[in-house]
Amino acid sequence: MTPDEARELFPDALDGTLTAAQQQAFDAALAEHPELEAEWAELRDLMSETAAMADADAAVAPSVDLLRGVQTKLRRRSGGRFYRDRFSRDVGRGAQMWPLVAATVMLLVLGTAWYILHFAQELAP
Amino acid sequence: MPEGYEEQLVERLRRRDEAAFNELVRLYQGRVYRVVLRMLGDEAEAEDLAQEVFVTVFKSIDQFRGESKLSTWLYRVAINHAKNRLKYMKRRARGSHQEFDEVGDREGIESASMNTSHQIARPDQTLEARETEGIIQLALRDLSDEQRELVVLRDVQQLTYEEIQEVTGLVPGTVKSRLHRARLALVEKVRRLQHGERTPPETE
Question: I need a surface site. Which of A10, A15, B57, B131 has the fewest CB within 10 A?
Answer without folding.
Answer: A15
